[in-house]
Design brief:
Blueprint (H helix, E strand, L loop, with lengths): L6 H11 L12 E2 H7 L13 H10 L3 H4 L2 E3 L13 E6 L4 E6 L7 H6 L7 H16 L7 E7 L1 H12 L6 E7 L6 H10 L2 H8 L2 E6 L17 E4 L19 E6 L4 E6 L6 E2 L4 H15 L2 H18 L13 H20 L2 H11 L18 H30 L10 H45 L2
Parallel strand pairs: 4-5, 5-6, 6-7, 7-8
Antiparallel strand pairs: 1-2, 2-3, 3-4, 8-11, 9-10
Helix pairs in contact: 6-7, 10-12, 10-13, 11-12, 12-15, 14-15
């Protein structure tokens, strides 16, 4: 028999289960090993399937009765919650222990992540609290139960928020946030207003962070998890698999050399990888980037974050968030003029950024010393030149509209008035002139972008000359 699963490991296994794309629909508790058994032979969970990595981890983990005998119940879908809530409860009847797990970012939830950087409470965070409160009442939780709240990525953020916000906070013993992002300053201020200092610290001390060594999501936002409650896990990721650094399955991964092909192959097991002593270079860079973003005024920070999150949502085929969130022109402007400079500063002016950039640009940088200074040249002159061309085109278009309008005025008196020809001439002239003004606005916007890049380029040159 292998070593006993720790509470942290069980939480991570259950967080992995939440990504299987399957929720037990039964309203009666069902053993986890029975649920996983139902999925054997289903193509999505086999070799090459969408959820093959998650399934392999769960398939091995449920062989241990600590995991396999857990009973799945109170799936959020059976309690009337929307698709973004994605939460489930697991009963350990032998030890009077209950795990409440929240899934990471689901369809339509990416914009809510951006709002979490500025808002006191988001819709999805409130629904996460509502789910826990519902379970606490239905399961009749008492102080005799050991209650663990957990989640990965956005699920980890929800788990933290629930622990700090729920009226049943006294019943929660631990919160394990796996790669979960932090809070906004407003959220933390909300908790401080709501509780005495002793009560606030009491809840804070229940929070624990378990992060991949190079995870780039957990550093985002205002960190409320105590530093001595954070551990980093080895995440072996093959080159080019950027998403793998934030994929919970890689905390259960091992790289094995295939001696036949000479290539490295990723294998997944039912046991979590070992802890590492410190955060990796990508994780440190993400921390520096978060600090720069959090320095921005609230409106600019929210706009920049919204553009990024809506972009990720759009990549998945959705035009707006689960709760109707959309990107505005103001958001785009905040991203261009505040977000990009913040990213530039984090990359070129911080030790974490320079270190990460060096490892990105130099393939052998893991074995050689990284240069102290890295210079990036931005071709703002080309941008400015193109904006001048756009501006000239706009002027020509506006003149064309004015010329068409003059033709209408020069029509013979018997053709003037309310006839079809003059009406259409007026309409075309107006539309062409309007188009010219729109092009002029685009030219001005591009000119501002060029100026922004020029400023960043000058700052970088100044840095390189130090």
């Amino acid at each position: 028999m292998g070593r006993k699963y720790t509470e942290e490991e069980i939480s991570m296994i259950l967080d992995t289960y939440m990504y299987l794309g399957y929720q037990e629909a039964s309203k009666e508790p069902v053993e986890l090993k029975e649920v996983i058994g139902k999925l054997s032979g289903v193509p999505e969970y086999g070799t090459g399937g969408t959820y093959q990595n998650e399934y392999r981890i769960l398939e091995q983990a449920v062989q241990d009765e600590q995991i396999g005998n857990l009973k799945v119940c109170y799936a959020s879908s059976t309690l009337g919650f929307d698709q973004g809530t994605k939460a489930c409860t697991f009963l350990d009847e032998k030890n009077d222990r209950i795990f409440v797990a929240y899934r990471g970012t689901g369809d339509g939830e990416w914009p809510d992540n951006g709002l979490g950087m500025t808002k006191e409470i988001t819709i999805q965070q409130q629904r996460a609290v509502d789910y826990f409160d519902t379970v606490a009442r239905k399961a009749q939780l008492t102080e005799n139960h050991r209650v663990i709240v957990t989640g990965h990525s956005k699920g980890g953020n929800k788990a933290q928020f629930v622990t700090m916000e729920t009226e049943f906070g006294d019943l929660i013993d631990r919160c394990y946030s796996v790669d979960g992002q932090g809070m906004s300053e407003k959220a933390d201020a909300r908790f401080r207003r709501k509780y005495s200092e002793a009560e606030y610290q009491g809840r804070i001390q229940k929070l624990y962070g378990i992060h991949g060594e190079n995870d780039y999501v957990s550093p985002l936002g205002n960190q409320i998890i105590p530093e001595d409650h954070v551990t980093y896990i080895r995440t072996p990721v093959q080159k080019g698999n950027f998403a793998g650094y934030h994929d919970i399955t890689y905390m259960f991964a091992t790289l094995v050399l295939d001696r036949t092909t000479g290539k490295w192959v990723t294998q997944f097991t039912g046991r979590r990888n070992e802890e590492v002593l410190k955060q990796g270079s990508l994780g440190k860079y993400a921390s520096e980037l978060s600090k720069e973003i959090m320095k921005l005024p609230e409106e600019e920070r929210e706009g920049a974050a919204n553009v990024v999150m809506q972009g990720i949502e759009a990549a998945g085929g959705a035009s707006h968030g689960l709760n109707g969130e959309k990107t505005t022109l103001a958001d785009v402007k905040h991203f261009l003029f505040a977000g990009i400079p913040a990213i530039t500063d984090a990359t070129t002016k911080t030790a974490g950024g320079l270190n990460f950039l060096g490892k990105t640009l130099w393939e052998d940088s893991y074995t050689k010393e990284i240069p102290d200074r890295i210079c990036i040249e931005v071709d703002y002159e080309a941008l400015a030149s193109k904006s001048e061309g756009l501006s000239a085109a706009a002027e020509e278009t506006i003149r064309l509209g004015e010329q068409i309008q003059s033709y209408e005025k020069e029509m013979p008196f018997y053709m003037q008035g309310r006839n079809l020809v003059t009406f259409q001439l007026k309409q075309v002239a107006s539309e062409v002139e309007h188009l010219g003004k729109k092009i002029q606005k685009l030219a001005s916007l591009q000119q501002e972008i060029a100026a922004c890049y020029q400023k960043a380029d000058e700052q970088t040159e100044e840095l390189c000359n130090q």
